[in-house]
Amino acid sequence: MKFLTVEFFMPMEPPTVTHQQKAVHVVKGKPVYYEPPRLADARSKLMAHLSPHRPERRLSGPVRLVVRWLFPKTAGHSDGQYKDTKPDTDNLIKLLKDCMTVLGFWHDDAQVASELNEKFWAEKPGIYIRAEELQ
Q1: What whole-number distance in Å separates Cα of residue 59 and Cα of residue 130?
Q2: Positions in the chain short of pLDDT 70
């Protein structure tokens, strides 16, 4: 059996709003969670950039996911230098994996058994993604 690998680069300015920024308000004494406009915009942006790259079939079994977030280089930083400021990588990856699940990259993001999630300063901003089925 041939194992499926999906690999691509999305030239874009990565969103800095994260899944953790959902909001809540109380209706009749019960909490109601919703996505503020900035988070909804980030989700839409990711969905639009990811959709042309969805595989012909969903990845099955355990999956390795490699993500490199390339943020626009600012003064005092060099191309390829690790970014050690917000947003946190664990917060960035949640929204991305949720979008990839909705688009059918895999059946469930629980399949991601191995993960490398890095962020850098870069001359050419974007998001590099490699998802592969593991044996």
Answers
A1: 12
A2: 1, 18-25, 34
